[in-house]
């Protein structure tokens, strides 16, 4: 066995020892007995992983010796014991999330099911970090939060889409106006910026949503294979998740068993509970998202261009600034639906930011216009 291979096995062993020790300490100081049981079971899994790496090292003739938890694990355990486990779990969840794919490129770990179990721990910690306190309360709160989040995300996307179109095209129009080009040239430039920006936004949104859909489809396919190949592990993972949400161990195991009795129901449930994916939606339609992004950008970008359809010269520039200012203030006011801040404060802030951006491009355009004009 090469030196680098030995180093890999030792690093894996140390990681598992750190995790097992920390989960065990969290179990000791967790006031909720159901969560404490979840931590104990996770610690047992990590100890089993540590034993796996220990045996691999011994089989290669490497002296393992006594391994102790690292400083980071000890510090987190100390904080959890004195300040409460709830303060440590978010940090632990971030650590597990960052390391959840650490075994994906190691065939021996994948063959032992360790890669999947590490991803499972990251999901369980995500549920715990999101809040507990009983199944009914946590589930209702999570469902209500999800609905508010969906509505909030849709509104946020609409506001930002219009804002992007308005600010970017206002800056473009003012930059060209600063170069003292004719009104027809400004109009053509504004319309070209409108179409180019809307097309770019639509393409970007399509790529984003389509990539997410393809990733979700792959994750669901992996989950379906795992249900076929390792139903016991899937039941264990579901049981841990439901215990983290407030069910007793017996209730969680019975519920997991009933769900896994039907493979279609099991796949739908695991996709929602483990992956946070609605199999029927998969993040929405990429084409609908692209069309919405295209239209929203145009709604904002057309505002600074409209005056140049009916006027010219400084009158058109002044009118463009005026109607764009109204639009900027309105966007700022709409943002208060998300933030709860004062309409006057939010609208004024948005107006100032937009005007500063347009003043900057106007100044750059003026300098370039003077330079090019001699």
Helix-strand layout with pairing:
Layout: H1 3-29, H2 33-59, H3 71-83, H4 85-99, H5 107-111, H6 114-129, H7 135-178, H8 183-229, H9 231-245, H10 249-261, H11 263-273, H12 286-301, H13 307-310, H14 313-339, H15 343-373
Helix pairs in contact: 1-2, 1-3, 2-6, 3-4, 4-6, 6-9, 7-8, 7-12, 7-14, 7-15, 8-9, 8-11, 8-12, 9-10, 14-15
In short:
The chain has 15 helices and no strands.
Structure description:
This protein is mainly α. It folds into three domains: 3-132, Up-down Bundle (Ferritin); 148-214 and 289-373, no CATH class; 218-273, no CATH class. It has 15 helices and no strands. Helix 1 (3-29) runs parallel beside helix 3. The N and C termini lie far apart (74 Å). 36% of the residues are buried. Residues 132-152 have low confidence and may be disordered.
Number of domains: 3
Tally of contiguous helical segments = 15
Instruction: Please tell me how large the radius of gyration is.
Output: 28 Å
Summarize the helix and strand pattern as letters. HHHHHHHHHHHHHHH
Give the overall shape: elongated
> How big a fraction of the residues is strand?
under 5%
Give the rounded overall mean pLDDT. Answer: 78
Report, as a whole number of angstroms, the end-to-end distance: 74 Å
**Helix coverage percent:** over 70%
- Structural class, from secondary structure content? mainly alpha
Major pleated sheet: none
Give me the count of strands.
Answer: 0
Taking pLDDT < 50 over at least 5 consecutive residues as the criterion, the unreliable ranges are 132-152
């Amino acid at each position: 066995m090469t030196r680098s291979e030995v180093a890999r096995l030792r690093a894996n062993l140390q990681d598992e020892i750190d995790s097992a020790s920390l989960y065990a300490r969290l179990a000791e100081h967790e006031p909720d007995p159901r969560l404490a049981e979840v931590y104990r079971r996770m610690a047992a899994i990590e100890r089993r992983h540590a034993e796996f790496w220990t045996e691999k090292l011994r089989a290669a003739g490497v002296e393992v010796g006594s391994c102790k938890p690292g400083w980071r694990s000890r510090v987190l355990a100390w904080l959890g014991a004195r300040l409460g486990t709830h303060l440590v779990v978010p940090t632990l969840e971030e650590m597990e999330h960052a390391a959840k794919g650490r075994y994906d490129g190691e065939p021996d770990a994948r063959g032992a099911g360790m890669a999947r179990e590490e991803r499972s721990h990251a999901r369980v910690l995500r549920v715990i970090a999101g809040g507990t306190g009983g199944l009914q309360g946590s589930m209702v709160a999570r469902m209500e939060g999800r609905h508010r989040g969906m509505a909030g995300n849709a509104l946020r996307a609409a506001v930002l889409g219009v804002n992007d179109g308005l600010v970017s095209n206002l800056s473009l129009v003012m930059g060209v106006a600063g170069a003292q080009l004719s009104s027809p040239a400004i109009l053509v430039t504004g319309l070209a910026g409108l179409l180019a920006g809307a097309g770019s936004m639509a393409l970007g949104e399509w790529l984003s949503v389509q990539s997410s859909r393809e990733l979700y489809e792959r994750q669901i396919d992996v989950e379906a294979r795992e249900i076929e190949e390792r139903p016991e592990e899937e039941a264990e993972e579901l049981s841990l998740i439901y215990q983290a949400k407030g069910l007793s161990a017996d209730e969680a195991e019975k519920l997991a068993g009933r769900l896994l009795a039907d493979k279609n129901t099991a796949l739908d449930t695991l996709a929602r509970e483990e992956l946070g994916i609605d199999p029927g939606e998969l993040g929405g339609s990429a084409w609908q998202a692209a069309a919405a992004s295209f239209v929203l950008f145009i709604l904002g970008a057309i505002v600074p261009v409209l005056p140049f359809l009916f006027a010219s010269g400084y009158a058109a520039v002044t009118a463009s600034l005026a109607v764009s200012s109204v639009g900027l203030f309105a966007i700022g006011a709409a943002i208060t639906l998300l933030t709860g801040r004062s309409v006057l404060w939010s609208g004024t802030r948005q107006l100032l930011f937009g005007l500063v951006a347009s003043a900057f491009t106007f100044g750059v355009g003026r300098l370039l216009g003077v330079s090019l004009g001699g």
